[in-house]
Design goal:
single chain; 650 residues; Immunoglobulin-like; Rossmann fold; 3 domains; six-stranded mixed β-sheet; 24% helix; 25% strand; Ca-activated chloride channel family protein; CLCR; signal; CarboxyPept-like_regulatory
């Protein structure tokens, strides 16, 4: 009997073990959001405010919410809400238990604003300035430093006023590249750009029912968001050069030249181990569901890809920076996920202190020959500590020389510091992506993890020399903030962009051929007194129209390597490839969004025609999504008109 009594606690523990284990399992809620016509609605925020979780719907309207088991106490009755600008919000009651697998779909209807009748009557006698005994001046409504809500709220029966949140998003001004004369300026030099943040940010604006700010549109990042079926590189270099010449869709008197780099994609088993430090902004500005909760969902996806060879650490910053999880093997997923689940938002943002600590942790756990990287997840709203762009950039530049690269993930809306985060990634030998939904996180951190996290080459620079016997003028489309001086090409001290494993980089030049009937206007200078600028006869270089040179360094190298590729004039009548046509469609759409003075006869209809005819196999669906995005833009009630320099040619 005594033995039985002694055994009872053990038996009880064995019986309760499955229950206790299940209590720690996360609850997962999946579903789909459609409109009243049964069509999927992307960009809808689905959230459970009481549990501080939320997710955005993908292009197919699907969403997935994961609730950490530690947050669930028994059976909890909560409200799950689906909302998006321009649609009626829908709330549903839900009973949640740890380990539950639930489904909740939503149907949203367009929002119709109903205003109660408001009648204001009064009488006034017109008065001139001379007849009133006080000074009279006019003040525009937009210059009154109080909100309408503050004046009317509580004063007018039946009126309810809600002020819109202030938008403080930051974007660097883009001064569009102009046409240059090949005889006078034969060299075009720039750094590559593999960032793709601009495209997903533009997508977010259009999904929210508004056109993006012109400076949020970086055309090169929109073009490079997509993968292209370029030939795999051969030989000693880690990437190959691919070029194509074709007609310019928006100006048939011009030509378009596509210059692309295709990076080598190593097999997954050959990728080096990773020493990753997650640096997560948990300040008060990150509290909304499209910020910290989406960051947590994104990091969970990446954790699922890690192995025992990898090491993960977690640093957070708000009013101060702190180490939440020191370097932990990647196969200890329960420990890493538990640390991620414990994150919560609050406080101001000491971003510089967090960056300093993250680099220190990465340095302490440095893996020789491995992938040493800090992954910063933030809205970029640094407001405590070192906060000037110059100081932050110098801090990043100081740390990159230690062999730790930087990936920056932007989240949220309303206060997105796009300009700052792009610059930090550029100076930190890294890349920058904007995560507007969980599907984008899956693309960046899972599907294209190798390109995002593993550097193939650094300080990659291009220099194109144009043959003035065949090219009268040229213009590089995009890359305005990546332009370099001609002499920077041979200067190995000059920082440039990094290329990830399997990445493609595409650049487009609009060309005015010699003899073309073009209306391109270029400013000139007086004739030189002491020298004459001549041209080699066309026969010497045959049909060459330009020569492309590329310089790069290996990830652990300090001396650059060179490769070059001559581009021949186009064969008449040859049909352009799908890669060429689709890249041209994306660039044309970017010019429309920017209301570019070089957009020629561009129109949304032309963009759609070109893109629909070049989607190709589209296994991942991204090209089809682009078409739907352009269609959504076309349906916006307020778009720039032809009179204002926008797209009016429908």
């Amino acid at each position: 009997m005594r033995n039985i009594v002694r055994a009872l606690p053990v038996l009880l523990l064995l019986l309760l073990a499955p229950v206790l284990a299940r209590a720690q399992e996360p609850a997962v809620i999946t579903g789909r959001v459609t409109n009243t016509a049964g069509q999927p609605e992307a960009g809808v925020l689905v959230r459970i405010e009481a549990l501080n979780v939320g997710a955005m719907t993908a292009a197919d309207g699907a969403y997935r919410l994961t609730i950490p088991g530690a947050r669930i106490r028994g059976t909890m009755s909560v409200n799950i809400t689906a909302s998006r600008v321009g649609m009626t919000s829908v709330r549903r009651p839900l009973n949640v238990t740890a380990g539950a697998q639930l489904t909740q779909d939503f149907v949203l209807a367009p929002q119709v604003l109903m205003l109660e009748e408001l009648v204001v009557t009064g009488h006034a006698t017109p008065a001139s300035r001379a007849r009133v005994p006080f000074s009279v001046s006019a003040v525009a409504v937009e210059n009154i430093p109080v909100s309408a809500g503050g004046v009317i709220q509580g004063k007018v029966a039946g009126a309810r006023i809600a002020d819109a949140p202030m938008n403080t998003e930051e974007y660097n001004h883009i001064q569009e590249n102009v046409f240059l004369a090949a005889a006078r300026d034969p060299l075009s030099t720039f750094s590559i750009d593999v960032d793709r943040a601009s495209y997903s940010n533009v997508r977010r604006f259009i999904r929210d029912g508004q056109a993006p700010p012109a400076d949020a549109v970086r055309i090169e990042e929109m073009v490079n968001y997509f993968t292209y079926a370029y030939p795999a590189p051969r030989g000693e270099h880690p990437f190959g050069v691919v070029t194509e010449v074709g007609d310019c869709p928006w100006n048939r008197r011009h030509q378009l030249v596509q210059v692309a780099l295709q990076g080598r994609m190593p097999e997954t088993r050959n990728l080096p181990p990773s020493n990753l430090v997650f640096l997560v902004d948990v300040s008060g500005s990150m509290s909304s569901p499209d910020k910290l909760p989406l960051v947590q969902e994104s990091l969970r996806l990446l954790v699922g890809e890690l192995t025992a060879r990898d090491r993960i650490a977690l640093v957070v910053y708000a009013g101060a920076a702190g180490l939440v999880l020191d370097a932990t093997p990647g196969d200890r997923k329960d420990v890493i996920l538990a640390a991620i689940d414990r994150l919560s938002a609050g406080g101001s943002t000491a971003g510089a202190a967090g960056i300093q600590l993250a680099y220190d942790v990465a340095r302490r756990n440095h893996m020789p020959g491995g992938n040493n990287r800090v992954i910063l997840a933030s809205d970029g709203d640094f407001n405590v500590g070192v906060s000037s762009e110059g100081e932050l950039v110098r801090l990043i530049e100081e740390k990159r020389d230690q062999g730790t690269f930087l990936t920056v993930l932007g989240f949220g809306r309303g206060n997105l510091a796009d300009a700052r985060m792009e610059q930090l990634a550029d100076k930190g030998n890294g890349n920058y992506a904007y995560v507007d939904e969980i599907a984008e996180a899956r693309r960046v951190l899972v599907s294209e993890r190798a390109g995002t996290l593993f550097t193939l080459a650094k300080d990659v620079k291009l220099q194109v020399e144009f043959n003035p016997a065949r090219v009268y003028a040229y213009r590089l489309i995009g890359y305005e903030n990546r332009m370099l001086a001609a002499q920077d090409f041979n200067d190995d001290r000059k920082d440039a962009g990094e290329m990830g494993a399997g990445h493609t980089v595409t650049a487009l030049y609009e060309i005015v051929p010699v003899g073309a009937d073009s209306d391109v206007q270029m400013g000139g200078v007086d004739s030189l007194r002491y020298q004459r600028v001549g041209m080699e006869p066309v026969g010497r270089f045959g049909r060459e129209m330009m020569n492309v040179k590329v310089r790069y360094k290996l990830p652990d190298g300090e001396q650059s390597r060179l490769l070059s590729h001559a581009v021949q004039a186009r064969d008449g009548g040859a049909r352009s490839s799908e890669n060429f046509r689709f890249a041209a469609a994306v660039a044309e759409f970017g010019m429309l969004l920017r209301t570019s003075e070089h957009r020629g006869r561009s129109s949304v209809d032309d963009v759609l025609r070109l893109a629909r005819g070049a989607t190709g196999p589209d296994a991942d669906g991204y090209r089809t999504e682009f078409v739907r995005m352009v269609e959504a833009y076309a349906a916006l009630p307020r778009r720039p008109s032809a009179a204002s320099g926008g797209d009016g040619d429908r």
